[in-house]
Amino acid sequence: MSGANLNTGLEAIRSRDLRAAAQDLSFNALRGYGVVDAILERILERPLTDQGMRALILAALAELLERPQSAYVVVHQAVEAAALVGQPRGKGLVNAVLRNFLRRAAQIRREIEQTETGRFRHPAWWIKRVREAYPTRWEQALKAANGHPPMTLRINVRRTDVDRYMQKLAQAQLGARFLGGTAVLLERPCRVDMLPGFVDGEISVQDKGAQAAAPLIGAEPGMLVLDACAAPGGKAAHILELTECELLCVDIEANRAMRIEENLSRLGLRGTVRVGDATQPQTFWDGRPFDRILADVPCSGSGVARRHPDILWLRRESDIGRFAATQMVMLEALWPLLIPGGTLLYATCSVFPEENGLQIRSFLDRHSEALAVPIVGIEDGQILPGDDTDGFYYALLRKNRT
């Protein structure tokens, strides 16, 4: 792994169809990386240093695991592709590796399945942390994180309602199931331009777990609300869909801030968007205290790894401590901006306690004026990846009046 972000590489492909095909191949290879990397190690006598060739073989092995009935086509196309990315003898190498695997597939897969990395397709350190944190649920969480992510819609209640939109989906022959609140789960993912009313702002694509944030923050009409680290604007838009408040959206990157404005515009919503650093309020704050603050802090992304499978193999265990340190700085910077009696919603898309419950306990130990408000329906504030949701953490903190 080179350390590059997969999305950055995919964005360089101009053709939408070609980009979609490349994403499908890449995601499949990354979801199975723990297995195909072990397969390649068993087949080769010495490590393959040509990174382009190695990536091609790993992608082909993942396709063979996913679609064994198409073995002939996969091998043929991989051999042809080798001429484009490899050395002169690349075609022979690819052909030899893939056919070697097909001959020994049953034996190799049995050997790999006996290892935890092979069974759960996660790095060993990741498996260990999740098992220690969730001793009765760790296997289900890891297995769910290996699947294809659900495609969930959020109904914009300012423009339609769930019943009317479900009827539109039925008319478009798109199967869907209501999950509660404003969340509707599609039976099969599709392109957004196939969704009725998307262009008109009737719906957005947002995971069920992420949709918990706006109701939890409980903004009321006329309140001054801050969404720190707001890009791409999903939670901010949901807040404005639910109530007429004065919302300030902040993000540290100008191009990401533009995405917030684009999303709000499509939905017919109005909020103030500023470029600023949530760890340095002087970069965006005008001195007026906020009634509500959403601190959607930078995190490991461990709860959404199935949407970004490169996270599994780019992250290092040492990264968790660095994220936790940044989160602490951000919490300390934002807390003074909250009025007495106001509430701050701390949010991550992580499953690691160091970024979640342990972070909040430490904050409460430092701030006697802070009170954790119980969240009904979310055990310990932690949502683990499942069939209809990604992994998220929420903590609702109230500032006591002094």
Q: How would you explain this protein's 3D organization?
A:
By secondary structure, this protein is of the alpha/beta class. It has 16 helices and 12 strands. It has helices at residues 6-11, 16-31, 33-43, 51-66, 71-85, 90-113, 116-120, 124-133, 138-145, 162-171, 213-217, 234-242, 254-267, 310-314, 317-334, 357-366; strands at residues 152-155, 176-180, 183-186, 203-205, 224-228, 246-251, 272-275, 290-296, 338-348, 370-373, 382-383, 392-399. Strands 5, 6, 7, 8, 9, 10, 11 and 12 form an 8-stranded mixed β-sheet that branches. It has a 4-stranded antiparallel β-sheet with strand order 2-3-1-4, covered by helices on one side. Helix 2 (16-31) crosses helix 4 (51-66) and helix 5 (71-85) packs across helix 6.
Give a topology summary.
Layout: H1 6-11, H2 16-31, H3 33-43, H4 51-66, H5 71-85, H6 90-113, H7 116-120, H8 124-133, H9 138-145, E1 152-155, H10 162-171, E2 176-180, E3 183-186, E4 203-205, H11 213-217, E5 224-228, H12 234-242, E6 246-251, H13 254-267, E7 272-275, E8 290-296, H14 310-314, H15 317-334, E9 338-348, H16 357-366, E10 370-373, E11 382-383, E12 392-399
Parallel strand pairs: 5-6, 5-8, 6-7, 8-9
Antiparallel strand pairs: 1-3, 1-4, 2-3, 9-12, 10-12, 11-12
Helix pairs in contact: 2-4, 3-4, 3-6, 4-5, 4-6, 5-6, 8-9
